[in-house]
Specification:
flat; 3 domains; 9% strand; 7 strands; Nucleotidyltransferase, domain 5; alpha/beta
Length: 457
């Protein structure tokens, strides 16, 4: 049953002095913005509103405010609960009474997974409309760029990915042995053997010679053989589980089958690599986040990043008005038209000007954005330019828009440094969409609070 808020006042609400109940200026503005009913609407659409059965959910207004504080101050779930519980100001902001027990961290985790990424996207849209009503959001100019949000994974190698698969399979079989010992008979724990082989790879690579790479391939082949044997034994365990009717055993069986399937994919991938095929489409780079992909953005410090590509759209007011998280590494020039269309859908009108880097540029895109209603498109052409194109790009308005575009790099740096977009702590594409969405929501709330506080002075 959906519970939006706690309506009843507590004794502490009347006893506390006004000085204590007063929130800091910027936090008070964020509190006022989040009071709007439009922020509750996405949750109401997610739940059947007529049903009165079942245990009530954790109040939505408390959940939303807790998640904003979490991202605003880069706190983990356990740290968030502790810090809010110890602070009268944060309790008041989250509408949690002083004598009210704090929720368990798992309550927030389950809620975030249940509501998913679509609710976060709708919350961002609701905030944009609210800021437009308050006349602090301008949307005549649009700049868009892409970056990579890295997954929270270790650096992948074929051998370590297989090691992860063996570890998970062995752990699941160990759990099955506790409730159905007959099913796990004959399964051998070979994690120590694989660990020894992984350590030998590190020793070999210190030599930095051609022969060392050939030896690494031979060691990887031996890791593949061990992993195949583990998968074969795990399949035998799955077959034996059919004979028992215990519920826990069947739950572990489902997870074990998933782990076996993924490990099989990693085995086939590793075999391709040791046979000489180094470039593999849709290469899996993590056992625990199999949707993450290797992405090259041409950075000197990081040749390859592992995670998800993110498009960031920003207007002249400094607000992020649109974003999208992509699986894989689509070309930038395929993402400009969706960005302009998303802007039109949000605000009902095309931006007057659009500025991007040369990665988004093409004749097709320039014609398309003009057809959508954009009057000035500052898209530097790739490759060698003719005299007419050079004169076009030397016009003052074109250069002004490029200077405006360059400032977008600072915004992306801020999002990565302060709002967590450097590394996603949630797994999978859906989890990363939620992570990025909450980071952008918190950034826009902070930006709005600063602008409204400055206007009030």
């Amino acid at each position: 049953m959906l519970k939006l808020r706690d309506e009843q006042l507590t004794l502490w609400d009347t006893i506390l002095p006004e000085e204590i109940r007063k929130l800091p200026a910027e936090l008070a503005i964020i509190d006022e913005l989040l009071d709007d009913e439009s922020f509750l609407q996405p949750f109401m659409e997610k739940h059947p509103t007529k049903t009165k059965m079942g245990r009530p959910t954790y109040p939505i207004e408390k959940y939303l405010r807790l998640m904003v504080l979490k991202r605003k101050y880069n706190l983990g779930y356990e740290s968030l609960i502790k810090e809010v519980g110890d602070s009268i100001t944060w309790r008041l902001f989250c509408r949690i009474a002083i004598d009210e027990p704090m929720p368990d961290p798992s309550t927030l985790i389950y809620a975030r997974k249940r509501y998913g990424d679509e609710v976060v996207e709708q919350l961002n849209e609701a905030l944009l409309h609210k800021l437009k009503e308050k006349a602090v959001l301008k949307h005549r100019k649009l700049r868009t760029d892409t970056t990579v949000v890295e997954s929270d994974i270790h650096h992948p190698t074929d051998a370590t990915l297989l090691q992860d698969g063996v570890k998970v399979i062995t752990h699941l079989v160990r759990k099955i042995r506790q409730v159905a010992s007959h099913a796990a008979q004959g399964f051998e724990d070979r994690t120590a053997e694989i660990k020894e082989k992984i350590l030998s790879i590190a020793k070999v690579l210190r030599r930095r010679s051609r022969e060392s790479w050939e030896e690494v391939d031979r060691i990887t082949e031996s890791v593949i053989e061990v992993t195949e044997a583990v998968v074969e034994q795990a399949n035998a365990v799955v077959a034996k589980i059919r004979e028992t009717g215990k519920r826990m055993a069947h739950q572990s069986k489902g997870r074990l089958q998933t782990a076996i399937t993924l490990t099989g994919q990693l085995i086939r991938q590793a075999k391709q690599v040791v046979s000489g095929t180094r470039v593999i489409p849709d290469r899996i780079v993590s056992f625990f986040d199999p949707e993450a992909r290797p992405i090259k953005k041409g950075k000197l410090a990081k040749g390859t990043e592992f995670g998800y590509k993110v498009r960031i759209d920003e207007t002249e007011s400094g607000f992020i008005t649109g974003y999208a998280v992509y699986n894989g590494n689509p070309a930038d020039d395929e993402l400009l038209i969706p960005a302009v269309k998303a802007h039109i859908e949000t605000f009902g009108v095309a931006p007057t000007a659009v500025a991007t880097d040369r990665g988004f540029s093409s004749k097709k895109n320039e014609s398309a954005v003009t057809a959508l209603g954009v009057k000035r498109a500052s898209l530097p052409r790739k490759g060698k330019k003719g005299q007419a194109r050079t004169e076009h790009e030397n016009q003052p308005w074109f250069k002004d828009l490029q200077r405006y575009r360059a400032a977008g790099e600072a915004r992306i740096s801020l999002l990565k440094r302060k709002y967590g977009l450097g590394r996603s702590r949630y797994r999978g594409l859906v989890g990363s969409k939620s992570w990025v969405g909450f980071g952008i929501l918190t950034h826009n709330l902070d930006r709005a609070a600063k602008m409204l506080a400055k206007a009030a002075k």
